Amino acid sequence: TSSLAAAFRERYENLFGYWPDNKSIEVVSARVIASTHPPSIATETFGTSTGEPISEPILNRESLGNDQRINGPTILQDQFCTVAIDPGWAGTLGSEGTLKLTRCAIPNEASHTVQSPLVELELFTNRFSSIVEEMGQLLQRTAVSTNVKERLDFSCALLDRDGQLVVNAPHIPVHLGALGLCVRSIALGQALGPGDMIVTNHPAHGGSHLPDITVISPVFDNANQLLGYVANRAHHAELGGISPGSMPPLAKSLAEEGIVIPPTFLYRDGKAQFDEIEKRLTVGPYPSRSVEDNLADLKAQAAANLLGCKALQRLTVAHGTAKVADFMLQLRQRAANAIARRIDTLEPGQHTAIETLDDGTRLSATIEIGGGKIRIDFDGTDPLHRGNFNATPAIVQSAVIYVVRLLVNEPVPLNEGLMEHVEITLPRCLLNPEFPDDPTEAPPVVGGNVETSQRLVNLLLKPFGIVAASQGTMNNLIFGNEHCSYYETICGGTGAGPGFNGADAVHSHMTNTAITDPEILEWRFPVRLERFAIRTGSGGQGGFTGGNGIIRELVFTEPVSLSLLTQNRTEGPYGLNSGQAGQPGEQRLAKHDGEEKELGSVAQETVQPGDRLVIKSPGGGGWG
């Protein structure tokens, strides 16, 4: 028992970086593996390879016989795999089909193939990508909330020592483009050391909206030289505020949306500071309703960062700090070169696009192409929004870098090298509000992250004419009471383009989450899923048809507070090249007593058992 406890503690500390002294170990299950004596294994024999040596560019394994020697360099294929035999090596097939490779000579300088720089860059690209993908897998596995575990509403990224985004896993675009700004706002101005980790959700420090909590870790090599940063951002389903789910449609200040966490140490010199975070979550006029879930997910986020730190450190041990830093730079430069080539193919000129939110608020962007640059000026956008559709510079950066990545038709990771030839002018407006230190004086932003960001993408894509508008909304549905909080974004139609129809019923652009499985939704939350179907005919007509939205019907089984944050309910997503707009979204509440109520783009209701919510998401615009 003592050895089992010690092994568990060691594994726990490796994952989370600390040991909770006030917790006991509970054995939930034990697994025993039993087996019979294994059968005898036939010994495989290899011939003397006295046959005629074979050396061809590509060989079929089935055509080879025993005792045939295959000299490198060559490629050997069968129905299961491909084996590359290097110069100076030879292979021999055994009696059971095994290929035995033997070094037969040390290749001289003339015959040795030097690995091409492009090949090595591709290898490092995948090494960097695997770090953040493994971070995401661990975060998903160790979190407890439906948001992270089932809906995958999180993102992980690797940044260089200057806080520039280098590589990310294929997570949430509205998170990823903002992480560089967040790291540069917080980490570069502090004297961080090994074992430090910072947490924040503040919109003025590269944040988006309060439920999105960011955890940042500097990474150092064995000589305490800064290598870069790993970071992740995860959506917490509950963080206080005036309504469950922390996305209140009617909030008038940032404080009413939930707990504001300024840049705070989660770990300091390797020591966990969760007690401080717990205090912050439990005080204030609107404390979190699910502090235990918050802390559990924060520990999962911390574990993901610890894994990323160790993986990057191992990479430097294997290849050296200078080489790893150089390939981070090369990866960013590769993206910069890709957008430079794309700009050269664009017709120079200036175009102004306008999108209008459902309440009449104006978004405006003037895009100028010329001199090897894309210049985007948001002058003309309306001032501070009276509701919560205010965005932040980080959200704008996310939308811009995402659109720029769409323009680049090359397999390069989304990183800040894409912004090398892009200039943004962002005046004071609803996309760049001031944030006083007092949260009660700061503007609310929850709708800016989820809805304004989607409309920004459609706004920025319009002048390029490469695709019609997608649904332009995340169709945010939030409900909860004192016992639970649930949040989901709902799929819809994407825009058509030259040569292709839009896609039906997918999450698009700034959201990349999954939809909660019906079994998990109904098991964990007081709701029954009655219908989830394609909304046939909702895509805009044209030479190529926009994608269809969906119909989603939920029946509530307990009293809950219901919130909706949506867009494109007054008019549908635009078509291009004479294509028609997609159908606008609709939503209504059918009460258990027979009353039916049409709901606007932004709505908050108290619902009772038996009440039915019907949401119809927009279709994408048509083309041609």
Q: How would you describe this protein?
A:
This protein has helices at residues 2-16, 117-142, 146-149, 173-186, 274-282, 291-319, 321-345, 393-407, 446-461, 518-524; strands at residues 58-60, 69-71, 74-77, 82-85, 89-93, 99-103, 154-160, 165-168, 197-200, 212-220, 226-235, 264-268, 271-272, 349-356, 362-370, 373-377, 422-425, 476-480, 485-488, 527-535, 549-556, 560-565, 586-590, 596-598, 602-607, 612-616. With 624 residues, it is of the alpha+beta class. The strands form six sheets. Strands 8-7-11-10-9-12-13 form a seven-stranded antiparallel sheet. α8 packs parallel to α9.
Overall pLDDT score: 91
Molecular shape: globular
How much of the sequence is in beta strands? 15-25%
Structural class: alpha+beta
- Continuous helix count: 10
Poorly predicted residue ranges: 109-113
Biggest sheet overview? 7 strands, antiparallel
User: Strand arrangement, largest sheet?
Assistant: 8-7-11-10-9-12-13
Fraction of residues in helices?
25-40%
Kindly provide the radius of gyration, computed on alpha-carbon positions and rounded to a whole number of angstroms: 28 Å
Please provide the count of β strands.
Answer: 26
Q: N- to C-terminal separation?
A: 71 Å
